[in-house]
Amino acid sequence: MLRSVQGIVLRSMDYGEGNKIISLFTPELGKVGVMARGAKKVKSRHAAVTQLFTYGDFVFFKQRGQMGSLNSAEIIEAHHALREDLHMSAHASYLVEMTDRMLGDEEGSTYIFEQLKAGLMAIEEGKDMQIVVHLYEMKMFDLAGYLPVTNACVSCGETSGITTFSPAMGGTLCARCRYKDAAAIPIGEGALKLLKIFPSMDMRRLGAVQVKEETKAQLKTCMRAYMDIHIGVQWKSRGFIEQMEKYNI
């Protein structure tokens, strides 16, 4: 069956002497694998459109249970800046890696597609990359059924006096329940506010947010610990981001 869809390239791998296999995320079909024959060749009409982060119109032939075969494609947004800037590339890679590894074949949603598209654009436009990443992480937690409890104490349900975030228990803790997790992470008012609004915030409406470094540090600690406990994936792109942070690159 010939399919015509818009999609974002999540992964692009060399295959054989001149071909590429791309993992394509689409609003209609979810995540699909597509063979682009000859795409490795410099003069190939598919060389540019099969690059990582590319958003475009794709036409491919696909039979049920088989990999698609690319017929034609047109670039809508090339995202050159995301591939040329080291920091942008690392953070954008984390977004597409999460999408690629947390979704099964032909799994996805129009909403997540729009959030990813907006997230890549937000990074390219110079918006706070860490906030974009955390916002998208929250979308993926929700999709996977692991959304943390952030509007009340995960233990007793109290909505006031929240002082810490417990990745192991699955959300925030009030002062009275803090003792139940010795490893709970202290959070201030700013971090708590963002944790509360991330689940309902639409990436397409993200403005030029200004977040204190202390707040961002707390968010980073909370979100990374939560990701490690509940998703348990060794993210290559996040590991690269952490190396850049470690050596202040």
Give a quick set of tags describing it:
RecO, alpha+beta, three-stranded antiparallel beta sheet, 249 residues, elongated, five-stranded mixed barrel
A few lines on this structure:
The protein has 249 residues and is α+β, with helices and mostly antiparallel strands. The protein contains seven helices and eight strands.
Walkthrough of the structure:
With 249 residues, the chain is an alpha+beta fold. 37% of the residues lie in helices and 23% in strands. The protein is built from seven helices and eight strands; from the N terminus they run E-E-E-E-E-H-H-H-H-E-E-E-H-H-H. The strands form two sheets. Strands 1-2-3-5-4 form a five-stranded mixed beta barrel. Strands 7-6-8 form a three-stranded antiparallel sheet, covered by helices on one side. Helix 2 (86-102) runs antiparallel to helix 7 (236-246). The model has no long low-confidence stretch (mean pLDDT 96). Pfam families: RecO_C, RecO_N. This is DNA repair protein RecO. Residues 4-78 form the DNA replication/recombination mediator RecO N-terminal domain. It comes from Paenibacillus germinis.
Separation of the first and last Cα atoms:
47 Å
Q: Give the total of beta strands.
A: 8
* Low-confidence runs: none
Main sheet: which strands, in order across? 1-2-3-5-4
Number of helices: 7
Strand content: 15-25%
Instruction: Briefly note the structural class of the backbone.
Output: alpha+beta
Domain DNA replication/recombination mediator RecO N-terminal: 4-78
Protein name: DNA repair protein RecO
InterPro entries: ARFGAP/RecO, DNA_rep/recomb_RecO_N, NA-bd_OB-fold, RecO, RecO_C
Organism: Paenibacillus germinis
